[in-house]
Amino acid sequence: MSAIPTAPQRDVVLRLRDIHQVYGSGDAVVHALRGIDLEIAEGDYVAIMGPSGSGKSTLMNLLGCLDVPSHGSYTLAGSDVSTLDENALARIRNRQLGFIFQSFNLVPRMSALANVELPLVYGRIGRAERRRRALDALDTVGLADRADHQPQQLSGGQQQRVAIARALVTAPTLVLADEPTGNLDSASTDEILRMFDLLARDGRTIVVITHEQHVAEQAHRVLTISDGLIVDDTVAPAVRSDRSVQ
Amino acid sequence: MSVAEMLLSALRGIASNKLRSILTLLGVMIGVASVILLLAVGNGSAQQVNNAISNLGTTTVTVRSSGGGFGGGGSSTAASGKSITRTVAEQLAAAKLGHVRSVIPEVTTSLTVSAATTSQSSITVLGTTPDYFAIGTNSVGSGSPFTDADVTTSAKVAVIGQTLASELFGGASALGQSISVDGTAFSVVGILSQQSSVGFNDPNSVVIAPISRVQDSFTGYGAVSSLTVEAIDSDAVTAAEGELTIMLNQLLGVTDTTNEPFTVVNQSSLLATAATSAASFTMLLGAVAAISLLVGGIGVTNVMLVTVTERTREIGIRKALGATRGAVLGQFLAEAASLTLLGGILGVIVAVIGAQFSLGGTQPVILPFSIPLALGVSVAIGVFFGVYPAARAARMRPIQALRSV
Predict the structure, then answer these.
(1) Which positions 8-47 of A are in contact with B (Cβ < 8 Å)?
(2) What DSSP designation does B133 have?
(3) Number of domains in chain A
(4) Is A98 domain-assigned?
(5) CATH code (residue A32)
(6) H helices within B106-147, ranges in order?
(7) Is residue A90 part of a domain?
(8) How far is CA A116 from CA A150, A160, A164, B194, in A?
(9) Is A99 on the interface with B (CB under 8 A)?
């Protein structure tokens, strides 16, 4: 097992200590995670790689506070979230996390603007403020002119950009992307990756789960997970297109 | 999420599957409309009965001999030979009881009445005194009533009802014409004003003649069918009833007051009986309608369950974005409640329109309280039947919800 990876000089926003995740019971028991230790610093752009069944989705769910670990502690922005109840977790997801999914997960039959406003609605932000911030976020992803379009009227790349706007609108501590380019063609993929790059330059903390090499190559740090354990942790000083990661 | 936003998003949810929402609305609408409408029909028929009874006059008391006739429930051997005759009625009138204005004897029989070309069988022939026409709505519409002198002389004159008049004489005026009652010729001196129906007999198909003449020609001089006693005003009815009972007992020589040979019925007791039966009729109709509202409510549960299943992914997305259990619960409850509220409003509109038409011979009269009641119940049903699907939605774990397709 590797040593606890430490991030250089910046504040740690996320710390996992000896995280285990066990599903099922008796003979059907599955150890999805077997002791993950991880720290991610503010402004880090991290890719998590691994074959299917390696536990990377489980890790993603834990990082996203969509699930609680069977064992271990998870500290996000200074507070231990592994012991929180459901409503507190909902609040954490709302304020600290921005999600980007493989299948975009926009709410159907709601305009792009309404979709981007949704986290602010649950965050009890006033209507005018909500609209302003949502339009700003749509502008950031270059879709201000599509604000009234419904998801089904947008291309995959556009839908994913709306999803990015939605993830950013609350100014979250951590942006989590689960195979964000998995359903996109190469042009749209490049577009989304450029956007992630810009976000990273702005100092956003980003965790991308992917099994695509060229997506992981964009990140500043690549974790490889296998059989529920982190087996490799490579920190790159800068993005190198000729660099390869095991 | 504010209430207004919740409602707005609920309406959006309803609009997202129009056909299903419309079918559910239909169920609730029919339930609400039938509750309001059937209560209105019950209420309308109750009012009809009440009107008819109050037309009889609230100042009158009816006395019937127990021995026979319509009111003769308890046959009493003690009363034999002590029946109420015209003589008794005249003595009662002569006693000048403090709370009694007039005593009107009535004899009735059913006979064939004919004019020159047509003939009607089983027509009620009523023998009475002119005071009869002063009570309630028994007024003469055209012509004039017969007089006390006609009673004294047993004159062959009659006042007839409107239906009978038109049946016998068609469009022509019946006044001054001659009619034959079971072979005896009567001259028509007056036509009754329109009477409202209270029982099985059409009160507009009647011949009213001096009591002396009717007894003379048809019924004989025995007991009268009933006495109508008019009190001086509606407050005096009870007092008049008491005086009447004591006086009649004296006149008839009754010693055992537990077995009087007559019964006294006042209109308010009739009214109370009618009101009670009308109320239970209304409740019965309401109960039937409530069942259809319940069925509509179950329809809401069904639709909400399907909606929740269909929108599992949306629930997952919302939860990932920070929706709490309460927010998801609220959203689906608001949807169910809006759905039933809309159905309720449509139901009220349908009921109000439906109440403009006469249903089964009854003009429905909408009970004012039934509208907010039906609306309130429909929303309550939405909330009640929406709780289970909404709770199921709220309980969903975000990762599982997100995984569904």
Answers:
(1) none
(2) G
(3) 1
(4) yes
(5) 3.40.50.300
(6) none
(7) yes
(8) 12, 12, 9, 73
(9) yes
Residue A126 identity: G
Strand partners, B184: B181
How does DSSP assign A17-46, residue by residue?
Answer: EEEEEEES-GGG-EEEEEEEEEEEETT-EE
A contact test, residue of B321, B325, B402 with most A CBs within 10 A = B321
* Residue A2 domain-assigned (yes or no): no
Q: What is the pLDDT of residues B48-61, one digit of tens each?
A: 877 777 666 677 88
Give the DSSP letter of residue B359. Answer: B
Domain chopping of chain B, boundaries: 3-52+273-403, 83-253
Q: Do A124 and B317 touch (CB under 8 A)?
A: no
Residues of chain A positioned with their CB less than 8 A from the CB of B321: 93-94, 99, 118-119, 122, 166
- Token output for A62: 């834990």
Q: Which of residues 166-195 of A touch B (CB under 8 A)?
A: 166
Contacts of B398 in chain A (CB under 8 A): 66
Q: How far apart are the CA of A56 and the nearest CA of chain B, in angstroms?
A: 14
pLDDT, tens digit (0-9, with 9 covering 90-100), for B150-200: 999 999 999 999 888 888 888 788 888 899 998 889 999 999 888 766 555
Could you give the CA distance from residue B401 to residue B405 in angstroms, rounded to a whole number?
9
- Cβ contact, residue pair B320, A166, below 8 Å: no
Give the whole-number percent of chain A exceeding pLDDT 90.
64
Instruction: Determine the Cα–Cα distance for residues A181 and B117; give it in Å rounded to an integer.
Output: 101
Q: Does A90 touch chain B (CB under 8 A)?
A: yes
With CB atoms and an 8 Å threshold, state whether A106 touches B317: yes
The whole-model pTM stands at 0.66
Residue whose structure tokens are 């109320």: B279
Residue A6 included in any domain: no
Chain B residues inside the 8 Å CB shell of A95: 322
Contacts of A168 in chain B (CB under 8 A): none
Domain that includes residue A212, residue range: 12-235
Selecting from B1, B320, B326 the residue whose C-beta is nearest the C-beta of A99 gives B320
Q: What is the DSSP letter of B362?
A: B
% of chain B at pLDDT higher than 70: 92
How many CB atoms are closer than 10 A to CB A51?
Answer: 12
- The alpha-carbon gap from B383 to the nearest alpha carbon of chain A, in Å, equals 22
